[in-house]
Amino acid sequence: MSALRKSHENMLVWEKLPGTEVRSVFFEKLNSIQSSIQFSNNKAQIITVTSAHKGEGKTFTSMNLAAVYAMQGKRVLIIDADMHNPRLSKSFQQVNKPGFSSVLTGVVDYQEAVQETGLENLYFLPVGPLPPAPTKLLNSEHFQTFIACVREAYDLILFDTPPILLISDSRTIGAASDGVILVIKAAYTKKADICRAIDLIEAKQDKFLGAIYNDKKLSKREMATYSYY
Ligand SMILES: Nc1ncnc2c1ncn2[C@@H]1O[C@H](COP(=O)(O)OP(=O)(O)O)[C@@H](O)[C@H]1O
Ligand SMILES: [Mg+2]
């Protein structure tokens, strides 16, 4: 689990997205929701992390965010809900163990599938055996029951999900969450795709919490200015 600490120290930064100095619709939109990100008072207890495409840092962000909160003493559950590309489960070497999909099909109770991670306070629910039709599984009643149960059991629940422009899963999971975070890869994610992704998130009840601008290189002075909140 030291890798978690390392990657957190190295990379993840909550960015105050530019709003005042950049006048594009795109940045104004992101800036307007920035103030609604309020992890500290638990208003957003269940959070879905998504991005427009693959490889933009959803898994990296989810993992780092989960670790940061666990290190602050919060009881955190991170869920590999990417039933298409379960990278979290791979990194924990937990592919094909009972997990999220097993909970959705009612095969196991979530408590039987949740694992400790080696980092205190951080718990992990692997993806489970990959189902042929993952999206359908999310309509299961078991999903709603699961949401209600984890809300009682953890301070923060993070869903690592597939890309929102390609697969609808993160919209469904987002709708059951308190909020959705969009990961944007610097100098990579197209503005039009970011806007499309935000529109999709907002179409499911106003769940957009904000964006994480991933990969941005910051100077030491900037690093000192930015914080995780
Ligand atoms: N900020 C970052 N710094 C360094 N590596 C990163 C960063 N964000 C993502 N990566 C790496 O880029 C690759 C793709 O990221 P990943 O989180 O798996 O993307 P996604 O889940 O959106 O498909 C992974 O190897 C990941 O470790
Ligand atoms: Mg991923």
Automatic annotation (TrEMBL):
The keyword Nucleotide-binding applies. Its EC number is 2.7.10.2. It comes from the Bacteria. Transmembrane segments: none annotated. One of its GO terms (cellular component) is plasma membrane. It catalyses: L-tyrosyl-[protein] + ATP = O-phospho-L-tyrosyl-[protein] + ADP + H(+). PANTHER family: FERRIC ENTEROBACTIN TRANSPORT PROTEIN FEPE, TYROSINE-PROTEIN KINASE. One of its GO terms (molecular function) is ATP binding. It comes from Listeria rocourtiae. It is an enzyme of class 2 (transferase). Keywords: ATP-binding, Kinase, Nucleotide-binding, Transferase, Tyrosine-protein kinase. The keyword Oxidoreductase does not apply. It holds the Pfam family AAA_31. Belongs to the CpsD/CapB family. Residues 45-203 form the AAA domain. This is non-specific protein-tyrosine kinase.
